[in-house]
Amino acid sequence: MKKSLIILITSSSFFLSYFSRLAWSIVSTYSSLKPNTIQDSLIYSLFFIGYVIVQIPAGIVSDKVKPSTIAFISLFGLSITSFLSGIANSIFIEYISSLFMGLSAGWIYPVTIKTLSITFKNKNEQAVAIGYYSLAWPLSIVLAGIVLPRISIEFGWRYSYYMISILSLIFSISYLIYLRGIPNEGTKSKFIIVKDKNVIIISLAGFLFFLSYWSITLYAYKYFISLGISSYTSGYLYSLLALAGLPATIVAGYIIRKIGVKTTLVFFEFVYGLLTMLLSAFFRPDLLGIVATLMGFVRFVITPANSTAVSFVGKEKAGSVTGFANFFWQSSGIFSPIISEYIILNLNYKDLWIFSGLIIIVSSILYYIFLKI
What pTM was computed for the model? Predict the structure, then answer.
């Protein structure tokens, strides 16, 4: 099996799990169901509740069961739930589909990181492979900003979910065809990971980072629209939050190798926090575009650094460590919409970006003081 094909399939799988949770943040603007801010936040939170529930079980099972089996079931479930979101005729159905979409998508990250840890044994080779794999993050945001507004306006918002459903089905089958020979290579004791201080720090600091990051990802498009910027231009600005992340993700592995994973997390998170606060200072599309572009580059050096950190700490327990850490990272998605909704309704977007930036800086400080890698 060519290692490049394994990277392609695993990264495409994660692209779909990430793209599916981004979709509503844009598609809801055009939905005939006309959700309000509270309904939007509930749909986001329900996705993350489902996603978080399966994280630790997904990590443990990833160390016991063949990765291809888990990935197939997860992507097949994502296909069904995406289709359900597309045909939904009420907000209540969207609540149900969002919850089960999260339950399906939640398995993908642990099992794909486990697959890469099995395939790439050398740490330096593993860091570079995870860098390429992590292209799924920025690419999903870039394409969400460019593709979803256009599909929603020209064809209808439901077709965005139909597209996700079809792609998820295709890649679920690819695991049975191409990756079924990869073994599990697990260990028996999994819960000892909670005694590792590095795992706890990565989980806690990551929770704070993602608490703010989800506010940016889920509400940036609506923020741009609220400034009076057109739908397509707002979509392009949203894409810029990740566009520079495409080259950043590729070089991230080499940056991590050069300065170390801890230094990478500390420095780039601190800068990302400052840039987040700058969103509150500009209102012109050109200036927002500059800030968004810089955020895209910095953000997607952080992404592979997170994945590399859990991979280095986890070693042969990479699936379990990833599931444990990602449980806390993604649980932030339950609280982030609620906090964001409160700040938006009672204060404004400016205060949301300042609050989010400060929280990210706190995360950077925690890594600096406590992480030992």
Answer: 0.81
**What CATH class does 3-370 carry?**
mainly alpha
Q: Which of 131-140, 186-195, 231-240, 299-308 is predicted most confidently? A: 231-240
DSSP states along 249-313 = HHHHHHHHHHH-HHHHHHHHHHHHHHHHHHTTT--SHHHHHHHHHHHHHHHHHHHHHHHHHHHHH
Contact 334, 45 (CB under 8 A): yes
pLDDT over 90 (residue 183): no
How far apart are the C-alpha atoms of 174 and 180, rounded to whole Å?
9
HSE value, Cβ hemisphere, 13 Å, CA-based, for 133: 32
Alpha-carbon gap, residue 91 to 95, rounded angstroms: 6
Task: Give pLDDT, residue 116.
Answer: 83
Residue 184, pLDDT > 50, answer yes
For 304-319, the pLDDT digits (tens) are 888 788 877 766 566 6
- pLDDT score of 118: 82
Distance CA 235, CA 102 (A): 24
Most confident stretch, 18-32, 179-193, 261-275 = 261-275
Q: Amino acid identity, residue 37?
A: T
In the chain, which ranges are continuous DSSP H helix? Answer: 3-27, 37-53, 55-62, 67-87, 91-105, 108-119, 123-133, 136-154, 158-178, 197-226, 231-243, 245-259, 261-278, 285-314, 318-346, 349-370
Mean pLDDT value of segment 325-333: 84
Average pLDDT of the residues in 342-350: 94
DSSP string for residues in 332-370? HHHHHHHHHHHHHHHS-HHHHHHHHHHHHHHHHHHHHHH
Say which residues have a Cβ less than 8 Å from residue 74's Cβ, sequence separation at least 6: 13, 17, 104, 105, 106, 107, 108, 111, 172
Per-residue model confidence (pLDDT) at position 260? 92
Where are the domains positioned within the chain?
3-370
170 — phi, psi (to 5°)?
-60, -45
- Burial state string for 330-341 with b = 16 or more CB within 10 A and e = fewer than 16: bbbbbebbebbb
